[in-house]
Design goal:
Layout (H helix, E strand, L loop, with lengths): L2 E8 L3 H12 L4 E5 L6 H5 L6 E4 L7 E2 L7 H6 L2 H10 L4 E3 L4 E4 L4 H13 L3 E4 L3 E5 L7 E5 L2 E10 L14 H8 L4 E7 L3 E2 L2 H5 L8 E8 L2 E9 L3 E3 L1 H7 L8 E4 L6 H11 L5 H8 L2 H10 L11 H12 L1 E2 L4 E2 L7 E6 L17 E3 L7 E2 L4 H14 L3
Helix pairs in contact: 1-5, 1-13, 9-12, 10-11
The chain binds flavin-adenine dinucleotide.
Pfam families: HI0933_like (PF03486), HI0933_like_1st (PF22780)
Protein name: NAD(P)/FAD-dependent oxidoreductase
InterPro entries: BaiN-like, BaiN-like_dom_sf, FAD/NAD-bd_sf, RsdA/BaiN/AoA(So)-like_dom, RsdA/BaiN/AoA(So)_Rossmann
């Protein structure tokens, strides 16, 4: 005998839990299946353990997707303020770090506890350490028959909330993508996003001993730019500016760094020349950008001499290098350290208001498994909450 549910949700992460509690509140019989030993593992590790759970400035423009309009409906119907209201109801203290990013004061454990408590209050059954072995659904069927490691289950709606491929050690799997393909869905090419970039050969040799040095930059690639910190690592570069631009970069793309963000480089050099004619370039640069990095720039990419000895063409050349320094990355660190997976289930075949498959009635996709990926800064959780909520209202 199969247990019967209105909705079975596969994946007890951010999107799955939000979907489950929303459907449960509507009186639906809901089962949430998680194959790891506990739910919300990525929430626990997010934001350095403090979970950057939303961004108050969320707009559809903060997402990458082959269809930039797809995310609009769900984001409009479940806003950051809706999630903040739940956080406040649970008396979880939070603060804004920068740029609208909201973090827990204490621990991301409180966000997971809140979601689990809300699921319990809504009558959701959660099964951890449980996997789906087989799914039966014939064309014309009004539901799905699932064979799980805990027995047989019948459900009217099946929601895929199994997330992306990043951090396999936290339970990430290709389950959702494989299932989507099996049911005839197109899956757009997958790649790691919000990920450190690697350097190789002479590019790495020139920087690797500066590992740990951080400096503000504006990183530009393919018509978009992000101003924030860059961190040099022993394998390449990381830090928020690099993680952000990594989602827009692919091997071979031209990636440039403005090393004097907020300054017109030539004006700045000319004023330094006027004010400090005897100081060397590496000294004046080292007072504005990280000292060791400035020294390396002057050893490898720029000539170093007292400011008064540069003529105008030389200063123009230096300004061009400083404002548009080419970063030749060889690749990314991949899913091992990526925060998100770009690409995924093609939005063309999914309803933007309910997240239901246009191919298979009763099948839903939510969260990161869909081809919607947010910037760094709480946008990915906001998409998980909003898409989970949209499906939770529809199942
Ligand atoms: C280190 C790190 C830090 C991050 N920090 C932030 C942050 O601060 N703010 C932010 O907005 N975003 C952050 N993100 C991104 C964010 O965690 C994800 O975008 C978000 O969790 C996606 O939600 P989801 O529910 O779609 O997937 P997930 O939260 O990944 O949940 C998917 C769940 O499905 C389970 N699962 C997978 N396959 C199966 C299967 N076959 N059967 C059953 N269960 C399965 C997984 O174990 C997992 O629990 C971070 C990501 C990482 C890796």
């Amino acid at each position: 005998m199969a247990e019967v549910y209105d909705a079975v949700i596969v994946g007890g992460g951010a999107a799955g839990m939000m979907c489950a509690l929303t459907a449960g509140r509507r009186g639906r019989r809901v089962l949430l299946i998680e194959h790891a030993n506990k739910v919300g593992k990525k929430i626990l590790m997010s934001g350095g353990g403090r979970c950057n759970f939303t961004n108050t400035g969320t707009t559809p423009g903060n997402y990458l997707s082959a269809n930039p309009h797809f995310c609009k409906s769900a984001l409009a119907r479940y806003t950051p303020w809706d999630f903040i209201a739940m956080v406040e109801r649970h008396r979880i203290a939070y603060h804004e770090k920068e740029l609208g990013q909201l973090f827990c004061d204490e621990s991301s454990k409180l966000i997971v506890k809140m979601l689990v408590d809300e699921c319990a209050a809504a009558g959701v059954r959660i099964e951890t350490g449980c996997s789906i072995e087989r799914i039966a659904h014939d064309e014309g069927d009004s539901g799905f028959r699932l064979h799980s490691t805990r027995g047989n289950i019948a459900t009217t709606s099946l929601v895929i909330a199994s997330g992306g491929l990043s951090i396999p050690s936290m339970g990430a799997s290709g389950f959702g993508y494989e299932l989507a393909r099996r049911y005839g869905h197109n899956v757009l090419p997958l790649r790691a996003g919000l990920v450190p970039l690697t350097l190789s050969g002479k590019h790495q040799e020139r920087l690797h001993d500066l590992s740990g040095v951080a400096l503000p930059v504006t990183a530009s690639c393919n018509g978009i730019d992000f101003s924030n910190q860059m961190l040099i690592t022993h394998r390449g570069v990381s830090g928020p500016a690099i993680l952000q631009i990594s989602s827009y970069w692919q091997p071979g793309d031209d990636l440039r760094l403005d090393l004097l963000p907020g300054h017109d480089a030539l004006d700045w050099l000319l004023s330094q020349q006027r004010e400090r004619p005897a100081a060397e370039l590496k000294t004046v640069l080292g007072e504005t950008i990280a000292k060791r990095f400035a020294q390396r720039l002057c050893e490898v990419w720029l000539s170093n001499k007292p400011m008064k000895q540069y003529n105008l063409p030389e200063l123009k050349q230096i300004a061009a290098t400083l404002s548009s320094w080419p970063l030749i990355a060889s690749g990314t660190e991949g899913y091992r350290t990526a925060e998100v997976t770009l690409g995924g289930v093609d939005t063309d075949e999914v309803s933007s208001s309910t997240m239901q498959s246009k191919r298979v009635p009763g099948l839903y996709f939510i969260g990161e498994v869909i081809d919607v990926t947010g910037w760094l800064g709480g946008y990915n959780f906001q998409w998980a909450w909003a898409s989970g909520h949209a499906a939770g209202l529809a199942v």
